[in-house]
Amino acid sequence: MFPARLRGRKSTGAAAEVLLLHPAGRNRGEGRIAGREWDALVRPGGKLKPGHVIHVAPELSVRILDGLPGGGRRVLLESRDYDLENQRDFRAVLERFGRTPLPPYLGRDDEPLDRERYQTVYGRREGSVAAPTAGLHFTREILAALEAGGVDRTPVTLHVGPGTFRPVDAEDPRDHRMHAEAYSVPGAAVEAYRRCREGRGRVWAVGTTVVRTLESAAVGRGRIQAGAGTTELFVRPPYDFQAVDCLVTNFHLPRSTLLMLVSAFGGTERVRRAYAEAAEAGYRFYSYGDAMAVIP
User: Fold this and answer.
1) How far apart are CA 235 and CA 225, in angstroms?
2) pTM score of the predicted model
3) Which residues contact 76 (CB under 8 A, 6 or more apart)?
4) What gap in Å lies between CA 195 and CA 185, rounded to an integer?
């Protein structure tokens, strides 16, 4: 996850905000977070038309170039002090002016500590605009203890997009369209998966993002293939899971695609009972909250 939120002011002095999604013409999976032209979300969306400029700092401004499907914008980052095509310069700009894109339901501004705690300890490839929050529960000590206990761990990548915050507003969930997200499954992960299956082990997904990645890479029950691409997979009841046996996940918002995935995995009524018990017991929900293990 990278500090993708830029806050500034319009020429009128009114506050404005830009959430960078990915460089124009490239998806989040291509591993290069740099460039002047970006696809982005803006706020206030209705008033930031092409031609408007958001002044972030004397060294950085954002010009609205065009509208995009779904309400997004094509924007141009402008700076006289930084070469924004250079990855090192661009990183310096984000570190200086970017903000951690916390989920809006937290209802607060980001703090300096969020730069560290809204990241998994094992994240390596930049590109997400939200943290895969199930992974926030794992410290290096916990990972070492799991490894010592015989758990084989292997990484996959899914760059979480803004769709993770988007509620399902359609009356029929089949009418809801997911934002495309870039994913990558390396050959080493396929080999680890194969060993697990041959050893009659269970495949645990840490987070709904991992479920969507492995199910997108599935080539039949109990088999996945290596590769990279984008996925718009929307997992909702009923769903025939091909690749995952068990799930660790946080407690999610009502009417969210994440909760629908968990309900498909654990059973709708069973998940409702678990949520009711968690609420009664005072569990913390959402990104910085507690986690649950779902074992069908």
Assistant:
1) 19
2) 0.81
3) 36, 37, 62, 63, 65
4) 16
Which CA distances in Å does 199 have to 33, 193, 268, 294?
39, 10, 31, 21
In this structure, the number of other CB atoms found within 10 A of the CB of residue 85 comes to 12
Contact between 229 and 240 (Cβ < 8 Å): no
pLDDT tens for each residue of 129-174: 778 889 999 999 999 999 999 999 999 988 877 666 667 777 777 7
Spell out the long-range contacts of 67-70 with Cβ–Cβ below 8 A and sequence spacing 24 or more.
Answer: 68/39, 70/179
User: What phi, psi does 294 have (nearest 5°)?
Assistant: -115, 115
* Contact in structure between 32 and 2 (CB atoms under 8 Å): no
Quote the pLDDT of residue 32. Answer: 62
Return the amino acid letter for 275: Y
Distance CA 264, CA 271 (A): 9
* Terminal-residue alpha carbon distance, the chain: 30
Query: What is the arrangement of strands in the sheet containing 291-294, beginning at the earlier edge strand?
Result: 204-206, 246-250, 291-294
* DSSP class per residue in 228-288: EEEE-----SS---SS-SEEEEE---TTBHHHHHHHHHH-HHHHHHHHHHHHHHTPPPSTT
DSSP-based helix, strand, coil % in the chain, nearest 5 = 30, 25, 45
Closest C-alpha to 137, from 289, 261, 2, 246: 289
**Structure tokens belonging to residue 136:** 């926030």
Query: Cβ contacts of residue 177 below 8 Å, gap of 6+?
Result: 232, 234
